[in-house]
Every structure is written in C-alpha cells, then in structure tokens.
Amino acid sequence: MRAYTGPMFNTLIPDAQTFLRNLSHTNTREWFHAHKDTYDDRLKTPALALLDTISPHLASLSDLPVTGKLFRPQRDIRFSKDKTPYKTHLHMLWRLDTGTRQDVVFFFGIDLDTITVGTGIMEFSKDVLTDWRKMADMDGAYLTAKIETVEAKGYTRRPPKLKRVPAEFGKDHPHGPLLRHKGLIVTGHPEPSGDFPTQITSAFTDLWPISDMLIGVTETPTI
Question: From CA 23, how far away is CA 168, in angstroms rounded?
Fold first, then answer.
C-alpha cells in the first residue's frame, strides 16, 4: 500500500473541485505546470491512496483480484475540436480481474460540482454483446430485477445507445430497453460525507448486484 502523508481524505473533494475550477478558467499547460505541486500533493497523492484503500473492500466483495487506475489529467486532443489540454475532472477506477471475456469496473469521479460513483461495462465486446442480447431475450426479467434493485436505492442506469431495438428481436419486444444497450453503466451522485471512503465502499456494495450480473454475462456464452 502506498504511504500517504498528504492531506486527509476528507479534503480531497473540496481541494480537487477548487483546483479543477481554477484550471477551467485558464486551461493551459503553463497554468497546470505552475500549479503541478498542488495537483500532486492535493489530488494525485490522496487519489492514489484512495485506490489502495478501497481495493481490499472490492476484493472481499467480489472475491476477485482488483487493479486500480487513476486517469491522467491530460486530454487526448488529437481528434477533438476542443484543444484545451487538461481534463476538468478527476476520475479513477477499480477493475475486477475476472479472467472472463471482459472485465467489470467500479469508478469514482470528482467533477466541478458533483461526485460520481458507478459500476459496469462501458461498451460490450462483440461476443459479450451477443450474449447480453441473448440473455435479455430469454431472461430479461432476471436482468431487469437486478437493475431495479439498485435503482430503488437511488442509482441511475445510463440511457441505452441505440434508439431502436435490434431488428432481429422486433420493435415490440418486452425487454426492448435492455436490447438497446451496447454496454451497461449504473451511477449515483451522493452528497459527500465526512468519511467519504466509507461512503464510497457503501455505494459500491449497493451497486454490487449490477457488477455480479455482468460478470455472469461475461463468464459463459449462452447457447
């Protein structure tokens, strides 16, 4: 586990939001490099420590190895009209190393005004998408029940990418909303508490039924 001698965890959110708001006003390499020590001490160091702090909980919850990642602050501007060089959010994720065809992730992000927790798979691989659709077709009630269990606790499923149900299933399919997904992400925006690492682990426990369901989809191809 990384040694952590920087600010307490309960300062990470306000420190990050202050830094990101200031960055958003002058999003240049010159400004970022002039304030890099603040970024390293107030954002990067506690964020890396947070990854290490949360990982054992997720490993216990899932009984799987967990790999943490802090996303770099630089934006990829090669194909973007927006050439501002830095992101105005701080995002990190924990990947469950399932050993299946596609891994499931948990994530936590700090934006200018909100924090976000979530889990899921951003975009299904081709074979996992095929099996997701088979499961939605054959046992959509099971998938829906898992999602509704989590939504009842205040979390939100991101809208499906497809506007229409894939043609092979028919536009009036009873589980059309599931079939329109090309990935599945469920998120929440809790109000920060004083002990927010505990708040995050509690949220990830709430979200576990989604992760568990998706691990099942990625494990064994349906017939």
Answer: 48
Residues 6+ positions from 221 with CB-CB distance below 8 Å: 127, 131
Whose tokens are 């107030």? That residue is 42
Cα–Cα distance, 116 to 91 (Å, whole number) = 9
Q: Which of 18, 8, 40 is nearest to 88 (CA)?
A: 18
* φ, ψ (nearest 5 deg) of residue 103: -85, 150
Three-state secondary structure call for residue 110: strand
Buried b (16+ CB within 10 A) or exposed e, 200-222: bbbbbebbbbbbebbbebbeeee
CB 23 within 8 A of CB 31: yes
Can you tell me the distance from the alpha carbon of 193 to that of 10, in angstroms, rounded to the nearest whole number? 8
Count of residues making up the chain: 223
pLDDT, one tens digit per residue, over 64-99 is 999 999 999 999 888 788 889 999 999 999 999 998
pTM: 0.91
Q: Parallel, antiparallel, or unpaired for β 104-110 and 90-96?
A: antiparallel
Q: Is 170 left (phi over 0), alpha (psi -120 to 50) or beta?
A: left
Is 72 within 8 Å of 37 (Cβ atoms)?
no
CB atoms within 10 A of CB 127: 12
CA 182/CA 44 separation, integer angstroms? 32
